[in-house]
Design goal:
Shape: elongated
Strand order of the largest sheet: 1-5-7
Order of helices and strands: HHEEEEHEHEEHHHHEEHH
Bound molecules: iron/sulfur cluster
Largest sheet: 3 strands, parallel
Strand content: 5-15%
CATH architecture of the largest domain: 3-Layer(aba) Sandwich
CATH topology of the largest domain: Rossmann fold
CATH superfamily of the largest domain: NADH:ubiquinone oxidoreductase-like, 20kDa subunit
Distance between the termini: 54 Å
Radius of gyration: 22 Å
């Protein structure tokens, strides 16, 4: 659903712009049944060129490593085996979403289906796996990932010159992973003064009380907005760091900030705890009345002061 909203023209035409031909997709392609299996079989046997195999969703390896919790319809063969077979020939392997990248939601809790991601942390493919291009699995993480991240990565691959330096240590394209979801949030002024929301409809920063992890979350979702104008934090939803492994097991309710002695457990990256505490105290002591009041409202109550005309 996210990918279908890609760009201003939709996914298929966005790919066409870069000369990318969609070989097959389970929902978007006309081929189904025997025709679809013929395409997949040709890919698995290396009879058709696959520049990028995009996998969505985690791979279920249970029960007991057989993969039979997730058979490819009409084949009696586990999806995991199909992915392994095509991966031998694919120029690139692309995990679309945090489930395919890191295991994601199906891996939560006791992981009853033995779900894994494609490569990360004992994933389906071994750590030393490299696709024909020489790259590890490219992890377009996110739940859901921004459609721009997918189109941009596939375009980069199609245009050539995409190398390992463009990936971070978890295989995420640095084009989005070098940013934090916090960058560009419309609540940044409230963050600066630690003027925090107390309830979900408040305009204040969501970090102190409502669990926002955007200062730790790789992603440019508040710079490259969804559908041109939206983001989770814009909509009042706290950032749950969905681009990182393990986000599905936060250890506390998503909309609550875990604290020890009143200090959030998850502090901004790159900031020592003592600095954060000192800065927070200083900021709170200097919070303008406008910011303090508006932080606890669902609309602007106190507008910015106007300069008197000379
Ligand atoms: S709500 Fe989250 S993303 Fe927005 S300013 Fe606060 S910490 Fe940053």
């Amino acid at each position: 659903m996210s990918a279908l909203a890609a760009d201003d023209v939709g996914l298929l035409r966005a790919l066409e712009r870069f000369g990318i031909r969609l070989l097959w997709h389970p929902s978007l392609s006309e081929e189904s049944g025997a025709e679809a299996l013929a395409i997949l079989t040709a890919a698995a046997e290396g009879r058709v060129t696959v520049d990028a195999l995009c996998v969505e969703g985690s791979i279920l390896t249970g029960p007991n490593g057989t993969g039979r919790f997730q058979l490819l319809s009409g084949t009696g063969t586990p999806v995991s085996r199909w992915v392994e077979r095509i991966a031998r020939h694919a120029q690139n392997m692309v995990a679309v979403g945090s489930c395919a990248a890191f295991g994601g939601i199906p891996m939560a809790g006791v992981n009853p289906t033995d779900a894994v991601g494609l490569q990360h942390d004992n994933g389906l493919l071994p750590a030393e796996f490299r696709s024909r291009s020489g790259l590890p699995v490219i992890n377009i993480a996110g739940c859901a990932p921004h459609p721009g991240w997918l189109v941009e990565t596939l375009a980069d691959l199609a245009l050539g010159g995409f190398d390992a330096a463009r990936l971070d240590s978890l295989g995420r394209p640095r084009a989005f992973a070098d940013h934090l979801a916090h960058h560009g949030c419309s609540r940044n002024e409230f963050y600066e003064f630690k003027a925090s929301a107390a309830t979900a409809s408040d305009r204040g920063c969501l970090m102190e009380n409502l669990g926002c992890k955007a200062t730790q979350a790789p992603g440019d979702c508040n710079i490259r907005r969804w559908n041109g104008y939206g983001s989770c934090t814009d909509g009042g939803f706290t950032c749950i760091n969905c681009t990182s492994p393990g986000f599905q097991n936060p250890g506390a309710p998503f909309q609550e900030t875990a604290k020890v002695a009143g200090i959030p457990v998850g502090l901004p990256l790159d900031m020592p705890k003592a600095w954060f505490v000192a800065l927070a105290a200083l900021s709170k002591s200097a919070t303008p009345q406008r910011v303090r009041t508006n932080a606890h409202s669902d609309h602007v109550v106190v507008p910015p002061a106007r300069k008197k005309s000379p």
